[in-house]
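To whoever picks this up:

The parser on our side crashed when reading a file containing two proteins. I've narrowed it down to the boundary between the first structure block and the second sequence. Both blocks are reproduced below exactly, byte for byte. First block:
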Amino acid sequence: MAEMPPVRLLLLSLLFTLVIATARDSVGNHDDDDGAALLAFKVGIRRGGSSGPLRSWNSSTSFCSWEGVTCGGGSGRVVALDLSSHGLAGMLPAAIGNLTSLRTLNLSFNWFHGGIPASLGRLHRLQTLDLSYNSLSGTLPDNMSLCTGMTALVLGSNNLGGLIPSSLGDTLTNLKKVSLTNNSLTGAVPASLANLSFLQHLDLSINQLEGSIPPGLRGLRSISHIDLSANGFSGALPSSLYNLSLLRSLQVEGNTLQGSIPADIGDRLPAMEKLVLSRNRFSGAIPHSVTNLSSLTALRLGWNQFSGHVPRTLGRSQDLRYLELAGNKLEADNSRGWEFMDSLANCTQLQYLALDNNSFRGQLPGSVVNLSTSLEKFFIGYNNISGEIPSDISNLAGLKVLQVANTSVSGAIPESIGKLANLVMFFMFNNALSGLVPPSVGNLTRLNWILAYNNNLEGPIPASLGKLKDLNILDMSKNRLNGSIPREIFKLSSLSIQLDLSYNSLSGPLPSEVGSLTNLNWLVLSGNQLRGRIPESISSCTVHSKLVNEQVVRYDSRCLRWNCHFERAVSGTEQLDWANPSCSTKFDIAVGARFVVQ
């Protein structure tokens, strides 16, 4: 090979040096641009200054060491900015669009407001954009479609409005995750979203979207999660969605969708874990093949128009944790239909079971006591079921909410109920329960609510209820309870919402401990046989919004004092005008209460 002339070698050497110098100059300039963009971002926010979470952002150190900033190893350019959950506020500065090497921008869980700056369209290398959980408004910028390498677009829980731009599906074809939940987006779902063949997660829930769900979404062959809940979608759910064999979660609750579930759903969606169709207008039978969904953890079909029997082997889905069938027209009676309850004993992780508001009839199945000890919430009321509450109900040791209301269930509340130590809410109203209130209820020290009104319960109110230090509501009205009201009840300072013992046969005086109910909003004692003087201690109860006693009560001739004075003292047998007391407090005494003085 011929030797290169010295002059030519010199020229090439100079040229190479110039290129390197120019490149270094360019990198240096970009470094300066990134630092300036970050400082402009800092200036534009209301918090995070010298004493805030961005106090490390100053010229004394390289911006690559600043909090939340990540630079590329070779280029020295900013490739990631993560300031999530920093309490930052203000409008997003347009200067953020100058970070042109940015691949990840995460400003979620802050207080940013105003619009999304159009300058974000200059971030051509951006892959992940997360601005969720702020207060951003306006529309989605059209030029965001220039970020063609984006794989995750997360803008949920803001105040964004307007249409979803069709360009989202036309140009951002690398997207794997789109989350626009909890905004105010309107209009239809663009058919172009069907082009997102790599999309795995689509969440458009809690918006104001309407129209039909595009059947073209069958093109989302990689999709595993679809959430279109709480919108205004109507029409039939496209049958093509049931062909998305990788789909693990389909949620469309809270729309006005209609139609039926395909008979072969269990074969078409083998990976399904969460199927949520509740609060729509779906009808027909629940197909037996749903029991083939072996990975199912949540099945929510409540508040539709499903009819017929529940598949008898539903418990084959052994990982089931959440089963909601309430608010339909499902049937069962003593001869047929309750078999599914037996199979649910196989669901050892079941935590939520809602069967209320259906057309179930017959005896309450004894197999209810074989349900999972992990069961926390059980609703079976508003059905025409009968029979008694089994004593082995105590097997359900994990129960926090028990609702057997508005049924024909009769018999006594079993003493074993006191073993449900985790119970927080106890709903047993509008039944035919009879017998004594078991003192063991006093063992349920986590109880917040007891609603046992409109039954045939009799005997005294157990003083043990005074141990329920977390009780907010006690309603045992419209029963046949007798005896005096235990003083311990009135010592429950936690009673803040309602104490209703009306329309029983309670007698004796009103204990002076009633003055301890300083937080109570509603006290109802009408329809009993209480006698004697109203305690002056009740003047401490200045938070009451209602004090209702529509019966005739005899008490000693004295002027009542409620931190206010009535317009005139009462004597003889005059009717006290409770409707017009001269009060300066917030005390609101119900109109129509009558007391006769002797």
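<<boundary where parser fails>>
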Amino acid sequence: MASPVTACAERSLASERVVTLYIDSGTAGVDLLETLRTLPDAELQVLWTVWGPLAARNAPEFEKAFVERSLRTSAASLGVGTAVGAADDTTATRLRACLPPFAARTLWRGPQALRECLAERITPGLPLPASVARRLFQQNAELRGPLVSTDDSQEAASADALAAHVRHVMVDFEPVVGSEMYTGHVTRAVLEDTLRLVMRYLPGPRILMDRNRVGTSGATTGNLRPDFLAWVNSVLLLKGEEKAAASELQHAVQELTTKVSDAWAAGLLPHTPLPSMLAYAAAGAVLQFFCIEHVGSGGVQATPISGIMDLTTAPGRLQALTASFNIWRLLAGYTSQGPTAPIGMGQVVSSPDGLRTYCLLPGFFRKSIRQFSLHARYTSFKLLQELYGKMSEQKHRLSIIQACDVNGVAGPRLQQHDDTYVVHLAPVGQPCMGPPATESDLACAVLGVLSGLAALHSEGYVHRDVRWPNVIFLPAERRWLLIDLEHAGQEGCDCSKDPFPLPFWSEHTLDDGKYTAQSDLRMVAEQLMSHLSFPLEVSGQELRRRLLGDRFSAAQALRHRWLARASGR
């Protein structure tokens, strides 16, 4: 996901283009600017991937046609320029009648059940404005029934926003082919806008949707993430692959089995069976839905749960629209009983300043730091290379986070062309936002952190940022692990000058301006063993006092009696 700064820049550029194109067109430009103002960041980013290159081609008439059609699509899906929110718009009532959620465990029932769900007719029918319904039914009589003319039903006649969306997909929308960006625009109009429309009007699953953007996520992430991803409760339940031409459909299907295929990371929800993942392959103007399942030992297969839909035809569009509404029903059913994952598989999370991104991919986290030359004020790339190398030795591997080998690259790397630091980290665990709920679990967590610090200190390094967000929990193994080594330094380093101190240091952290191994232990006492919701046993209080003092090492602390039960001694 792009940062808010990126989205703001794209909105500004898009607004400037509208003003340039429509400076002499009166209120037409104003209406388009209003639609642009209300467009969600994610939709704007998808739109600008096509619009930006088009604007650079200096073809204003073609650009205006694209802009008007695209923003009209968004207006229909968002209700801009319709009676959304007005007392006489019955879109919510109509959607409630048409879209009862499917059974909670349907995503665990296999391909045949999902095929039946996607094809199930939407009743009492999707409304279509009478002015276009008459012509469409004359050309395709079989569409009458699944689609209902607003002349034939008073309830359908007043579902303004829903009718506008159905009209756009069935009549106004014309697929543009020729590039993967155009294919993405097609699936956005049919699938994404349908899901957003329902979310706008009905309570139910909050579906987080994102599109892969290699430019912001990095080459590794771009190659391993699907083109489209959608999460419910941080569980990846829908993904898509998109290609430029219909002849590439099988290539898109193949990628469905080679890119992220787990709803959640292995080990984060132990003993919980994975649901099937919904997926689509789109190529040019054709679309097909699939069920992604694991087979055998580590195999993945994509089983078709729909036919191939030709979106240049009205019957094909209706099939796709029907499937899209029924996908919402499947996701709504999942929400009622399905588990919540601690981290979204394939989800890119950015720091508030946009310089750091984190993405969970199968088997590892990808961490990147843009403008690393700024971060290098704290630590050098050479030090991090050497540190991760030392921590990868057999004696340390279970004690602390590891830099893993991905695509033949082991350890951190610095991309010279864009000054971006990248490291792939394993094992995958659940980030800790605070202390565990019990003292016995706290002892286990402190044991894990001290094990990591002992490994660092034995090689002459210090962590310098010991706090709960830099600790992960491994549910399958019931243990805690120290992570985030990107602020590490040499033991005894001078931290008395700018850019130090780090935000979570206290007045007791440094020893005469130097950060020592004892400084790390003081952070354990202050950040991990203080401000708890329960009182510590006497032995826990005694360990905390010793960690705050002098002449006490992580190796000695690991032998303390408060940790004996946690270590199994």
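After patching the parser it read the second block fine. Residues 115 and 305 are 4 Å apart (CA to CA). Confidence is low (pLDDT under 50) at residues 1-5, 80-87.
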